[in-house]
Design brief:
The protein is an alpha+beta fold and about 100 residues long. Helices cover about 25% and strands about 25% of the residues. The chain has 3 helices and 5 strands. β3 (about 50-55) and β4 (about 60-65) form a beta hairpin. α2 (about 25-30) packs across α3 (about 70-80). The protein is globular and about 35 Å long. The termini are far apart.
C-alpha cells in the first residue's frame, strides 16, 4: 500500500451559492469542517468545489471534490492532513478525485 504524503494545512474552495444547492457540501461546511484542524473554507464566487492541500515549501495539491459526499470529504482530509480529526472515522469508501499538482 503506497504511503500518502501528508500536508500541514488545507483549504476548501467553494461558491457560496452552490453550497446552498449542494446538500453534502452544505453539511460538510456547516457541521464537519469546523471540527477539522488546519482546514479553512474559502468562498470564491463561481468556483467549482475543490480542496487544496498546501505543503510548507509552497507546493499545492488540488482535488476536485464536486459531487463528493460529506463523509468522503472528511475521510479524504483525515487521510491527507497531518492533524485532522482524531476520531474513528473509517477510510473505506468508493470515491475518487482528480488530483492536480499546482505551483503556488
Amino acid at each position: 500500500e503506497p504511503i500518502l504524503e501528508l500536508f500541514p494545512k488545507a483549504r476548501l474552495i467553494a461558491d457560496a451559492q452552490q453550497q446552498e444547492r449542494d446538500q453534502d457540501l452544505h453539511d460538510f461546511i456547516k457541521r464537519k469542517a469546523p471540527r477539522i484542524r488546519n482546514l479553512e473554507v474559502d468562498y470564491q464566487a463561481g468556483s467549482s468545489p475543490a480542496v487544496e492541500l498546501e505543503q510548507t515549501d509552497g507546493r499545492v495539491l488540488r482535488a476536485d471534490v464536486r459531487d463528493w459526499k460529506s463523509d468522503h470529504l472528511v475521510q479524504f482530509l483525515n487521510l491527507r492532513l497531518e492533524s485532522a480529526e482524531n476520531d474513528d472515522v473509517g477510510v473505506a469508501g468508493a470515491w475518487s478525485a482528480e488530483i492536480q499538482s499546482c505551483s503556488g
